[in-house]
Amino acid sequence: MGIESSSILRNSPFVKPVDAILNWCREYSCWPYAFGTACCAIEFMAVAASHYDISRFGAEVIRFSPRQADLLVVSGTISEKMAPILKKIYDQICEPKWVMAHGACACSGGIYDNYCTVQGIDTIIPVDVYVPGCPPTPEAFLDGLIKIQKIIEGESIRDPKYRGE
Amino acid sequence: MAAAVAQTLLEKFPKAVSAAPDFREEEALYVIRENLPEVLQFLYSAPDAEYRLLEDVCGADYPGREKRFEVVYHLYSLKTGQHLRLKVALSEDDPTLPTATGIWKAADWFEREAFDQYGIRFEGHPNLRRVLNHEEFVGHPLRKDYPINKRQKLTRPTNLGWEEGQSRGNGSGSEAGGEEPERMILNIGPAHPTTHGTLRVLARLEGETILEADPEIGYLHRGFEKTSEALTYQQVIPLTDRLNYCSAMMNNVGYCRAVEKLLGIEVSKRVQYIRVIISELSRIIDHFVCIAANIVDIGALTPYWYCFRERENVYELLEALCGARLTTSYTRIGGLSHDLPDGWVERCRSYIRERIPRAIEETETLITKNRIFVDRTMGVGVISGDEALNWGFTGPCLRASGVPFDVRRANPYYDYDKFDFEIPVGSNGDTYDRYLVRMEEMRQSLRIVEQALDGLPEGPISAQDRRVSLPEKDAVYTKFGALVQHTKLIVDGILPPEGEVYSVTEAANGVLGFYIVSDGTKNPYRIKVRPPCFAIFQALPQLTEGNMIADLIAIVGSLNIIAGELDR
């Protein structure tokens, strides 16, 4: 947003209220980047569809451009061939950003432990929330989303990541 | 008849062809490498049994043998409705054989896969490079001596070789002569909303017109075949869920049917009918996803909500059966994991009578005569019936091109011959026809489900066969024989006889084949899936040539490419 880079604000006594306002805004307007590769992506589609309705949590603006998103949802198995692309997409998302590993494959490789699968995306990029399940039910996904919101709630513009460190 | 063809081959090429061991009444022949092109050419145009459909080409590795590798061709004749398996043995020092791409275009990617996974070289292949594994991969993972856990990192995204300036205009062309139009290379995917996860297409453009498209796959390669070689037959079932995850039940059914064929087991009528019901329900939801995704890609979001609402309803039915929405693992070898729960039949009946037809109706109202949709899809991505067959198309994509081939009708299994249903066929083979065929297939599937529910017989849900079925729990606690049987099955697993089978079912995207080789142990020696998408997607360059970029999006959506099945 740019506000957080201001050192005057960071050192001022108004940090708390600024944090509260910023976090509140960010929390309920996550723009997910759906990095869906496999089965979990179908469940992600179900979450986005009318029955589960992700817009109840303010995250219905699903973007397919990393420049427009702040929540990277990795749904599905990441193969060694895909790994450099995931890294590139992650790097292209601007701070502040959060990552959700959606499903067992993204968390740990899941049932695939062989020559071509990455054993969890946390070997490539940092992960904020792990949602287990193969695939996770839509409820589990929403629970993960709420966990992301809780993480956002606890952030401050004094955090190292906002200082560009 | 196919038997006659085999006989003719044996007489015509006495030195080149020899009969393979007879197993489960499948036609199989050994062919020596030198005479392969003649034999294939003969079969393609053999009188009375033209083998026009090349279903599968795959490799196999037998390190103990004198000739280590084997290449297996599965041919199908629409005339006689028979399969024929040809096997060519190759030595390790010289694993080369002539390509079949000159006869069937379908051989293209299948041969590339055999090269990728086994290192078998096909002489004369136009583009023999890796297809599933990445370019920096060293070795051939499906060889028996390749350790399953040996991972190889890819350091940078795959470069498809076009970036090196091959026929890239950069504006200089127009300066030089004024006639050479400006060309641009556009990379689409693998992280792109319409590429359904993990497809990648590189397109050479002139303006917005596609001159040439080059699909690249393998971004979701998860080693299904290698993994299954280390599991028991029952343990493979969960992996089959994740092939075509839009209709997991059908993969369960297809796989179990293949293993049952291997074992020589006939499942009870009740199991067959339940399998028909879940297969057809899966076909409906698969088509819903395909249509919804296709239309979202084109730019209309509304039908997506309608389709997915109904999908949720079917999910409820499937969840009641097995506890999972998507990855069901409902079937077992020789039967099913559970019987239908109480009230399920009534619930299913009310869904298929009211809700699903309504959703189809609503979607139809929104789309079928929608001017924008018609303009975007009619006459786009046209392929003729013969061409489609040559590329190895099956399922709705083939039927949209006017070829009325459906395994359920041609080689009926599970009483499909007793149900009254139609095979919808298109006339133009374009994107619009593919949509129409899918819509109609959903209606026909509803009819089948209705009839199967009406005729659902009583009976056991697991085969009464000591080799596959666990005994009753009470018996395990009270009878010694039952205890031994239980223990043996758990510890040793299912032990099929030595042999190999190829079994096909009609999945949502077309012919889903499983080629299983058993060496008599509890682990399958080799499992090869014949995924319908794989054959279809390789025709993309032909389908998109001369179309716009926006058409490419519509075409890819209409082919219903499911990455899990494509890349396995």
**Taking all residues together, what is the mean pLDDT of chain B?**
85
Tally of separate helices of chain B: 21
Roughly what percent helix of chain B?
40-55%
Low-confidence stretches of chain B: 164-178
Shape of chain A: globular
How far apart are the first and last residues' alpha carbons of chain B, in Å?
A: 34 Å
Overall pLDDT of chain A:
86
Overall morphology of chain B: globular
Keywords:
heterodimer; A: about 160 residues; alpha/beta; Rossmann fold; four-stranded parallel sheet; 6 helices; globular; B: about 575 residues; alpha+beta; Beta Polymerase, domain 2; Cytochrome-c3 Hydrogenase, chain B; five-stranded mixed sheet; three-stranded antiparallel sheet
3D structure, described in words:
The complex is a heterodimer of chains A (about 160) and B (about 575). Chain A has about 160 residues and is α/β, with parallel strands linked by helices. Chain A has one domain (about 30-150): Rossmann fold (3-Layer(aba) Sandwich), CATH 3.40.50.12280. Chain A is built from 6 helices and 4 strands; from the N terminus they run ααβαβαβαβα. Chain A has helices at about 5-10, 15-25, 40-50, 85-90, 105-110, 140-155, and strands at about 30-35, 70-75, 100, 130. Chain A has a 4-stranded parallel sheet. The longest helix of chain A has 16 residues, at about 140-155. With about 575 residues, chain B is of the alpha+beta class. Chain B has 2 domains: about 1-125, 2-Layer Sandwich (Beta Polymerase, domain 2), CATH 3.30.460.80; about 225-460 and about 465-515 and about 530-565, Orthogonal Bundle (Cytochrome-c3 Hydrogenase, chain B), CATH 1.10.645.10. Chain B contains 21 helices and 15 strands. A 5-stranded mixed sheet of chain B has the order 1-2-5-4-3. Chain B has a 3-stranded antiparallel sheet with strand order 8-9-10. In chain B, α8 packs antiparallel against α20, α10 packs antiparallel against α15 (about 430-455) and α15 (about 430-455) runs parallel beside α20. The interface of A and B includes residues 51 and 113 of A.
